[in-house]
Amino acid sequence: MSLITTYNPLPISFTHGQGVWLYDSEGHAYLDALSGIAVCGLGYAHPDVTTTIQQQAAKILHTSNAFIIPEQQALAKKLTQLTGTEQAFFSNSGAEANEAAIKLTRLFGHSKGIDNPTIIVMEKAFHGRTMATLTASAPKIQVGFEPLLPGFIRAPFNDIDALRHIAKNHPEIVAVMLEPIQGEGGIHPAEIAYLKEVAKLSQQQDWLFIVDEIQTGNGRTGEFFAYTHADIQPDIITTAKGLGNGIPIGATLMGPRASNLFKPGNHGSTFGGNPLACATALTVLQVIERDKLCDNAKKQGQWLITELKAQLKHIPCVKEIRGQGLMIGIELNKPAADARAIGLKQGIIFNITAETVVRLLPPLIINNEEAHELVSRLRQVLELY
What we know:
By secondary structure, the protein is of the alpha/beta class.
């Protein structure tokens, strides 16, 4: 086998998709409750996305950031308007978006005369697999990649007193970085009161508040971005995954205190912000707004959580169901990896995170009938598991 063995794929491949459904080479249909891990929010073969890709590919794919890219400027304007930020930097992935955010905090710290600028990150966090984002993530994915980068202090999630204690004892802190809902950590939402206090503490301490919206952004939780549930304004917002509906793109969005830190030569990307990716992302945002998909994610998510609790309460292995919008975790009382194969036999796709949590991330376009089908098929899976 020529492929590197960093993945453990299920023994199936898909030839095409339509809406929330994927099809294998034998024509079998599978209800997709994963969306390529929160990527394909508009599902498969969406006509607007397809048209944009075709039209843009027929014009121009790439020129490089040595030139003005109108599609990039239009996307930056749209994202900064949606988030109340001032500047955008485009990359190709969530890890790259977070890497840019981390670099910004180093510049911010040095501008304040801090020689060893340090970021507070959370237990069970996941921010990517580059060396900086790996260091910012949970220790379980760091094994074998030491020495890690300096400049990070870990704190328990949803514990504001721990942050206050760190603030008193570490004058080198320049930022705090967290996910509004920890995805890889097992679908653990940040408490609203906690987010508000983190934002307040960041202002008091002159820290940059970084919110990683790679998985939670672009309508996934019932709002365009999950931080808005808490009515706060972060200094840096990172997003990717659902922004391109399958076309790779990441974005680092900067508020006033983080703007203008990057100067020419400080950061860059060969492919980041290319015309194809930006045109596609702009279409994705327009469709989310036009078709009120945030509202649909909120409605369907509330129904799914309520119905899953009712339908699965008799199953002994189900421990807890939690989430927000169309980002739902079903925690089992035993390792859940083998449930994926049973899912394929029942015609439903999902994945496992934190070893025991069934992660559901269906497309934002899911309708009532498909939501009912999701619950029915998943119930059959867990009854058999």
